[in-house]
Input
Amino acid sequence: MANHPSALKRMRQSEKKRLRNVGYRSQVKTAIKKYIQSVDQKLPSSKDLLTDAVSLLHKGVSKGIFHVNTASRVISRLSKKLPSL
Output
């Protein structure tokens, strides 16, 4: 446990950031799951859902939630599924 005032403040900041990131990651995972389900069911709205998921991933990178290469890898894998329609 931190004792120094600046360390205590850093702990509070880290916890707030962690909770914000957890919520955003959950939102991205939900978007990805919706896209995969639509591809499996061969729905025409798959392209729109892919766009939404990619957009969320890019925003996550700009906010520092995801690493650039991680987001690129996920986007690439999701995009590969689309032409299979």
